[in-house]
Design goal:
Elements lengths: L14 H22 L5 H12 L11 E5 L4 H10 L5 H7 L4 E8 L2 E11 L2 E9 L8 H11 L6 E5 L6 H10 L3 E3 L2 E5 L4
Parallel strand pairs: 4-5
Antiparallel strand pairs: 1-2, 2-3, 3-4, 5-7, 6-7
Helix pairs in contact: 1-2
Length: 194
């Protein structure tokens, strides 16, 4: 879907002009979310994030593959060490099973983001959601989170740990944009299945 088809004739623009506009809109969104989060209502943040995501940037979303990692290749280990520099990747690999999983976003055979998921019945606990610094602000983390929830339809109560990493205001805005509610030790989301 392009924005051009939705513009009145007097506002018609080229695809490149629309992408430039979308990039500027995304930059404004990030600036607002980073510096004004406490002043904005949850509803406004959610609506603005949804609107900004609907505009194409640089031709659309990066072509990412979100997948659960059953075992780690040598390259996966290198990439995971960049995502989680303080994590023992060998110990993490030993813990993987049907209830302890690692989901990752892959682009051009490299992992750009990852999270650790623990499933207990209908509850999912997400820890260590992290995106490599060079890839941030491109929708990778949101897409990873969204696809992880989609790939686990049996889970209807989600909890994301407040790991204490990065800037708390940015993380809070990100989690609100993903429809999670703040709690003392993290964020929660209940998913209703049809």
């Amino acid at each position: 879907m392009t924005l051009i088809g939705h513009l009145p004739a007097r506002y018609a623009a080229s695809q490149k002009e629309v992408w430039v506009f979308a990039r500027k809109l995304r930059a404004v969104k990030i600036t607002l979310l980073c510096f004004c989060t406490k002043k904005l209502t949850d509803d406004f943040v959610r609506r603005f994030a949804t609107l900004a995501r609907s505009f194409p940037t640089d031709g659309g979303r990066m072509k990412l593959t979100i997948l659960p990692l059953q075992h780690f290749s040598a390259q996966d280990r290198i990439d995971l060490q960049k995502i989680w520099p303080d994590e023992d990747i060998s110990a993490l690999a030993a813990r993987l099973n049907s209830t302890h999983r690692v989901y990752a976003a892959r682009f051009n055979d490299r992992l750009l983001a990852a999270l650790q998921l623990e499933i207990a019945g209908t509850q999912g606990k997400i820890r260590r959601l992290n995106v490599r610094d060079v890839t941030r602000r491109r929708g990778v983390g949101g897409y990873l989170l969204e696809e992880t929830l989609t790939q686990n339809p049996s889970v209807d109560h989600w909890w994301v740990a407040d790991d204490g990493y990065d800037e708390q205001q940015v993380i809070a805005a990100f989690m609100q944009a993903c429809d999670f509610r703040a709690q003392a030790d993290g964020w929660v989301k209940n998913v209703e299945h049809d």
